[in-house]
Design brief:
Helix 1 runs parallel beside helix 5 and helix 3 packs parallel to helix 4. The chain has a single domain, classed as 3-Layer(aba) Sandwich (Rossmann fold), CATH 3.40.50.1220. The chain has five helices and six strands. The protein has 145 residues and is α/β, with parallel strands linked by helices. Helices cover 38% and strands 15% of the residues. Strands 1-6-5-4-2-3 form a six-stranded parallel sheet, with helices on both faces. It comes from Methanothermococcus okinawensis.
Length: 145
């Protein structure tokens, strides 16, 4: 098993500034402090999506509502300060995050159970059941705000 802060796909970590690993509590604090958060839900979010669907945060479903690349280009212009991603193909997301990291002021957070080095902040590598528990904890802490 890979370490907790080693890229899920080792060849994906090609830049010098890798994502900082965050816990669910820190992720909730980031959402709480943001002025305009956005949650991007991909088609591979699995069971975790049912815990995130009814959050009072603006959501975009990709690719059902919008293509990821079109969304990545739109995010900096729309005034979002925190964008969270879950359930998007790893290498596709990694490329989009590289654009946001280097060409905008938007803070990015990945809620997948895989460490994504091109985000600003990422959950660590986790087993599937551990990831589902982290999403449940994330939701519970958000409800308690």
């Amino acid at each position: 098993m890979l370490g907790r802060n080693i890229p899920y796909q080792p060849t994906a970590g090609t830049n010098l500034y890798h994502a900082e690993v965050v816990s669910t509590k820190i992720a909730v604090n980031m959402v709480k402090r943001s002025r305009r958060p956005l949650l991007v839900i991909g088609e591979y979010s699995g069971e975790a999506v049912k815990y995130l669907e009814d959050l009072k945060i603006e959501k975009v479903y990709t690719p059902r509502e919008m293509n990821l690349l079109a969304l990545i280009k739109r995010v900096p212009r729309e005034g979002y300060d925190l964008v969270m991603f879950i359930g998007i193909t790893y290498y596709y997301l990694n490329q989009g995050l590289t654009y946001l990291k280097h060409f905008s002021d938007v803070i990015t957070l990945t809620l997948d159970g895989k460490y994504v080095p091109n985000a600003h902040y990422s959950f660590p590598n986790m087993e599937e059941n551990e990831h589902l528990e982290a999403i449940k904890r994330f939701r519970m802490l958000l409800d308690n705000l």
